[in-house]
Amino acid sequence: MNKVEIIDKTMKHLMEQGPSEYHGSCMYRLTKNGKTLKCAAGFWISDEDYMRTFEGKRIVVIVKDFSGDSLKFIADNIELIDDMQRIHDKYSGYNQRIFAQQIERDFTELKKRYT
User: Fold this and answer.
1) How far apart (Å, rounded) are the C-alpha atoms in residues 30 and 106?
2) What's the rounded Cα separation, in Å, for the pair 108 and 22?
3) Three-class secondary structure of residue 29 per DSSP
4) If pLDDT is split at 50, 70 and 90, which confidence band does 23 have?
5) What is the pTM of this model?
6) Residue 22 phi/psi, 5° resolution?
7) Which of 35, 37, 44, 97 is deepest in the core (most CB within 10 A)?
């Protein structure tokens, strides 16, 4: 999978899921109303590799301290996934319309940077 495909897949996930209610505080996994929500980095962590101890740690720390197939994929794309995570965190707490506009704008800029 190339960088643009990673960006597109992550953006699609975030647009379908919508903004986090927790402004400035990312959680890789959050269950709300029976649905598991995932942040931009958490989206790439498989259920098999995920541990609750990841919460509160930056993705760059997780890939150094833990192992698993999905974490290797993240490690191989760490700069991009960290960039997407920072963008996602920046717009947490926004309403759906503004969130979607900002995510689309910033992810489009990421595509330019990574092509």
Assistant:
1) 24
2) 24
3) strand
4) low
5) 0.91
6) -100, 85
7) 44
